[in-house]
Design goal:
Structural class: mainly alpha
Number of strands: 10
Helix content: 55-70%
Number of helices: 45
Oligomer: single chain
Low-confidence stretches: 1-7
Largest sheet: 5 strands, mixed
Distance between the termini: 99 Å
Length: 999
């Protein structure tokens, strides 16, 4: 076939038009001896052009012709190919879609004859037809050849569109069933003595069990065995194990004809560590006592496929009731969702965007969502008990458990994604779920799905569209019908029954499903725009609430906030349009009592949760002080001024608590903060700065009302304890000292009277009952404690500390830092106390012994009666007190010569001690970890209960919420307590050495 130089032949052009990508190579193939007589036949070219990959189809055809046994056989193939359209479409369709099946035909050139028959039973073969097709196999090699021959017929019907994707998957499962039976027959024939001892049943799980298998997939099975009458059970189980293992090898091992597919028994009880074969009683005992939620989810698709049919049916009958009780297990929904998240997290980063099965918006999302709903509602509705995903989805829609429109979209998306998966695997018969990157592979894939106009771009667009639908719907699928159950539906639309809604809410962890349904009805009923937006938001919010320890509280709080702000135009718009706001709100409302209580007193603070509105970043002390002083200036009197300052404090406490919760829980777009110390520092710094600014604003308000711009005496507030150390928690009092110094010409008595009035009025105004949380100002660390005057002059402090100061007072001064009032006076107070807290000569042995005695007495006297010392975050072994006294002893002994130790902050001092070589790196890390954990526990208790506490809650829901804040999933409160004890125990060992051992 030649043409004039510089001109392309007409055949070349025709080949391009028919979809060939390498017309020159195709011309050479058409010129080969085998195709001489038909190379210009338009029927052949049209048929090749209709395949997924015309180049590949032509190459396969030439190889098949070359492999025929003589000219007569070649001519028979060509004649049939040209004359019989069914064969032509089937054979070329397979050759253009599957390089692996083309290889099979080249090795077994007579197998093309299996595609000739075009009878009705051939169009839809069942298990019996496949068993007949495999019947002649008498060894693993011949079984593989027969298997490929049967697979060839399935692939031919698939690529020609004779069967759709669900039928293809069902036929592949039937072929797998027939193959397992044939393999077991071979295993029994090889060991008749073993076969005589036992009854063995093969139970398919996964896609084979669900009648929805891929072209290349592990076939998940479990084996159940029993002794025949009169046989010893142990010997029978060993025999059954040998048969099962041989069956697995027959299917899985690679031979000259390759392998069939791996038989995977890892879903059995105890996984790889468990026996390969168990008796039915052993299976039942395991599932009744030890099985995890995911194991019942796997059993949902259990189906006897080979071996003893009666035993297989007994297995299913015994275990199915347990499957439908799984939803009653504690944390059922959370366990299923956690398993799904774990699957996604384990996908290599380089693959996640190409994962058709496991990635977000992939096949597994649909399957998990459907299985979750089946397990919840299948207890009371047997129509849902199908192992096939699409059949189950259809039944869920028919029963009102899923909206019909949602089900239709998911059905469409699932079929498309499964079709992609089938065609990707069919090409080389390899187990893969990755969308190819090569342009030629994408082109063949797109054309195989009948996307002929710009196949690559169209394929990628359609894939992303369907994946987006799945991503959007798979979680809402569980929650949206709850809204339909309380809303008006279109005529003919099925709704979730009240009992089904109750079941679903209980499965989600709601303790009071009736109240939850009332809240949903109040939020989502009606035809208003507000109700419509709520119906859009709630399916997602319900999922986030369910991810907390107290979904009921989250939903109730959301209703209250929505009732308060529902008529505010920006509220629902914020939640709908700003990605972070809705999830942040759900996390905050369901994490405990403190943050929702703060929010309910001023619901407009919800704006802080959005992408704008100042966000959740704590504001600086200077910024806060500026805002509070400006509010005081605008106020008519001190009461109004302090009220305004307390309002700012409430808002900022909410901001800080929300940032802490979101950082601890994480969001879908931002993982939880890994550095627990950073969260502790965030809370401690923010609350301490806020307290200092509040005191500064209150001081200004009181002075302004009583004395105008200038108080008769200079006045400073010194932060003590956690306040001075920038380590305040949500429930901490403000420990302070008050110091004053009369102005020139002012009588000392007048100055002292003014200072005392200021203190009394500040404390009163900060504790006046109101919608804002009180700020308790505690001055008990002053000289002489509660017996001493509330306010002293700087000179009085100097005289007292010079003559009378006790060891505990010098110790307490390590945390002293000016926080408000006259800056110069605060600085001079610091200069006064520095020699006391950082003595030049260090501490004498007697002073050290006195500090140790004080610590020991405090441990024995201050621990609340009945409290478990090992779980007391403040006073227990390895708790805050242990770590802080150890660090402070180092400061007292070495602070004069080690400048880094001269800080009021525990973690900074500990780091400085490590840098100075006063404590080893390992010991410092142990103490830091214990201090951070104990502080987090106290913060968690306040966030969850709304009141301060130093021990873990005893109420299970509250304990679960503390665990969730600390990073422990549902059902792991015991692990949290064990981890706390372990951390505290290690810290106490270091304290015993450093504090009581005295180096």
């Amino acid at each position: 076939m030649t043409s004039a130089p510089g001109r392309r032949s007409s055949t070349f052009t025709r080949l391009l038009r028919h979809g060939f990508t390498d017309p020159s190579a195709a011309e050479r193939l058409l010129d080969s001896a085998g195709l001489t007589l038909v190379r210009n036949d338009p029927v052949l070219l049209d048929a090749l052009g209709a395949t997924a990959d015309p180049d590949l189809a032509l190459q396969g055809l030439v190889r098949l012709l070359e492999a025929q046994d003589g000219a007569t056989a070649r001519q028979e193939l060509l004649d049939t190919l040209i004359a019989a359209k069914p064969l032509r479409d089937r054979l070329l369709g397979v050759l253009g879609a599957s390089e692996a099946l083309a290889d099979h035909l080249a090795r077994h050139p007579g197998d093309w004859q299996t595609l000739v028959t075009y009878e009705p039973r051939d169009l839809h073969p069942g298990l019996e037809e496949f068993e007949r097709g495999l019947a002649g196999a008498d060894d693993p090699v011949s079984l593989r050849v027969a298997y490929r021959r049967c697979l060839l017929s399935i692939a031919a019907r698939d690529v020609c569109g004779t069967i759709e994707v669900a039928q293809t998957a069902a036929e592949l499962a039937d072929l797998a069933t027939a193959t397992l039976r044939a393999a077991l027959t071979l295993a029994r024939a090889a060991a008749p003595e073993d076969a005589a001892l036992c009854r063995l049943a093969v139970i398919a799980l996964g896609k084979c069990g669900g009648h929805e298998l891929n072209y290349v997939s592990d076939v998940d099975v479990v084996f159940v065995g029993e002794a025949v009458d009169g046989a010893d059970e142990d010997k029978a189980l060993r025999a059954a194990t040998r048969l099962a293992a041989h069956l697995m090898r027959i299917c899985s091992e690679t031979t000259v004809e390759g392998s069939i597919w791996p038989v995977d028994a890892n879903l059995r009880p105890e996984g790889r560590n468990g026996p390969l074969v168990r008796t039915l009683a052993s299976h039942l005992a395991y599932y009744q006592r030890w099985a995890k939620t995911w194991e019942f989810q796997a059993l949902l698709k259990a189906r006897p496929v080979a071996g003893d049919p009666a035993l297989g049916e007994e297995y299913v009958a015994a275990l199915q009731p347990l499957v439908w009780q799984a939803a009653e297990r504690e944390n059922f929904v959370a366990d299923v969702q956690k398993m799904r998240r774990r699957v996604v997290e384990n996908i290599p980063a380089a693959e996640i965007d190409r994962q058709l099965k496991l990635g977000p918006g992939g096949l597994r999302d649909v399957e998990f969502a459907v299985q979750l709903l089946q397990l919840v509602h299948g207890r009371s509705d047997a129509s849902l008990r199908s192992g096939t995903t699409l059949d189950a989805l259809k039944a869920l829609a028919a029963g009102g458990y899923v909206g019909r429109a949602d089900a239709a979209q998911l059905d469409d998306a699932y079929r498309f994604l499964r079709s992609m998966e089938h065609r990707i695997q069919l090409h080389r018969l390899r187990r893969t779920h990755l969308v190819p990157e090569d342009e030629a592979d994408l082109r063949r894939l797109g054309r195989s799905l009948e996307l002929r106009t710009d196949p690559v771009a169209t394929l990628l667009r359609e894939w992303k569209r369907h994946a987006s639908v799945v991503r959007r719907l798979h979680e809402k699928l569980f929650y949206r019908p709850l809204l339909d159950a309380v809303a008006a539906l279109a005529p003919g639309e099925a709704r979730l029954s009240a009992e089904a809604a109750r079941e679903r809410l209980i499965a989600l962890g709601y303790a009071d499903p009736a109240a939850a349904l009332r809240h949903l009805e109040a939020l989502a009923s009606g035809v208003t725009r507000k109700a419509a937006i709520q119906r859009t938001l709630l399916p997602v919010l319900l999922g986030w609430f369910a991810d907390s320890a107290d979904p009921d509280a989250g939903l109730l709080a959301f209703r209250k906030v929505s009732d308060a702000l529902g008529k505010t135009p920006w509220y629902l718009r914020l939640l709908r349009d700003e990605g972070a706001a809705a999830e942040n709100l759900a996390r905050v409302l369901s994490a405990g009592r403190l943050a929702p209580d703060l929010l309910m007193r001023a619901p407009e603070a919800v704006a802080l949760l959005g992408d704008g509105g100042g966000g959740l970043e704590p504001r600086s002390r200077a910024h806060l002080e500026q805002e509070m002083l400006a509010a005081v200036r605008r106020a008519d009197n001190a009461v109004q001024g302090v009220t305004a300052a307390r309002g700012v404090r409430r808002r900022e406490l909410f901001r800080t608590s929300a940032a802490d919760i979101v950082g601890s829980y994480g969001t879908e777009s931002q993982p939880a903060e890994a550095d627990q110390g950073a969260l502790v520092d965030l809370v401690g710094g923010a609350v301490s700065d806020l307290t200092a600014a509040t005191l500064a604003g209150t001081l200004r308000a009181v002075v302004r009302e009583g004395w105008g711009d200038t108080l008769p005496t200079r006045f400073a507030i010194i932060g003590m304890g956690r306040f001075g150390g920038h380590e305040l928690g949500y429930g901490s009092d403000a420990d302070v000292l008050f110091v004053h110094e009369p102005r020139d010409g002012v009588d000392e008595r007048e100055a002292a009277e003014a200072a005392n009035k200021v203190v009394a009025e500040m404390r009163r105004l900060l504790q006046v009952p109101s919608a804002d949380p009180p700020l308790i100002v505690d001055a008990d660390l002053r000289p002489e404690g509660k017996s001493g005057p509330l306010v002293r002059t700087l000179r009085s402090y100097e005289a007292y500390y010079r003559r009378w100061s006790l060891a505990w007072e010098r110790h307490a001064l390590l945390r002293a830092e000016p926080v408000a009032g006259d800056e110069d006076l605060g600085r001079r107070f610091t200069e006064l106390i520095d020699p006391l807290r950082y003595p030049a000569a260090g501490l004498g042995e007697e002073a050290v012994r006195e500090i140790r005695r004080l610590k020991a007495r405090m441990e024995s006297e201050r621990l609340p009666r009945g409290a478990d010392p090992k779980l007391h975050a403040k006073l227990g072994p390895g708790g805050l007190s242990d770590v802080e006294w150890t660090v402070q002893l180092l400061q007292l002994r070495h602070g004069a010569r080690e400048p880094g130790l001269r800080t009021t902050r525990t973690r900074q001092a500990l780091a400085a001690a490590r840098a100075a070589g006063l404590i080893s790196e390992d010991d410092a890390a142990v103490l830091d970890e214990a201090w951070v954990l104990a502080t987090r526990v106290r913060n968690a208790v306040m966030l969850v209960r709304g009141r301060a506490g130093d021990t873990f809650p005893t109420v299970p829901r509250e304990l679960g919420a503390v665990g969730r804040y600390l990073g422990y999933g549902p059902g792991h409160a015991g692990d949290m307590l064990d981890a706390y004890r372990r951390t505290a125990r290690r810290a106490r060992s270091v304290v015993e050495e450093l504090f009581y051992g005295g180096s």
